[in-house]
Recover the amino acids of this structure.
């Protein structure tokens, strides 16, 4: 069965299947932006000039969000969140320990949980990305995905202190 990335690029009516209450979480390998080799088809765009890593990430995330008509979260050293209306945010607090199996699934669950609490997809994805990075940084070395949920109450408390 084809995966989501294939379906969204091949289906002529993918926008009918999507809703503005969806967040798509993608994970990119190191250096993948510059080469584009590991990106799903709808993120590879020859018109995107490699001016700088962040510029390219934002351009491609915005393009993906617009084409898919959903909020897109691209997990990496600098996590990019983009909305179909063109808004974008970069979260740069993700430590390298998040490069572990299952951490993207936890991030997706965090975004969905925040949406269930009433946040809109862009805000939920942006907040989830920050909380994800903060929780991982607080845990430190040796992190596995299962460690992240236990760190969330403290991460939420630290967030409350800053606002």
């Amino acid at each position: 069965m084809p995966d989501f990335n294939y379906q969204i690029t091949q289906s002529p009516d993918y926008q009918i299947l999507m809703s503005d209450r969806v967040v798509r979480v993608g994970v990119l390998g190191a250096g993948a932006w510059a080469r584009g080799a590991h990106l799903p088809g709808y993120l590879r765009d020859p018109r995107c000039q490699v001016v700088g890593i962040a510029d390219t990430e934002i351009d491609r995330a915005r393009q993906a969000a617009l084409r898919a008509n959903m909020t897109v979260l691209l997990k990496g050293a600098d996590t990019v969140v983009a909305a179909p209306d063109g808004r974008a945010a970069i979260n740069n607090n993700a430590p390298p320990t998040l490069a572990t199996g299952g951490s993207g699934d936890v991030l997706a669950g965090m975004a969905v949980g925040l949406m269930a609490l009433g946040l809109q997809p862009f805000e939920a994805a942006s907040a989830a990305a920050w909380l994800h990075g903060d929780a991982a940084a607080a845990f430190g070395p040796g992190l596995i995905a299962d460690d992240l949920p236990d760190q969330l109450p403290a991460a939420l408390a630290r967030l409350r202190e800053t606002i």
Remarks:
- Residues 121-139 form the longest helix (19 residues).
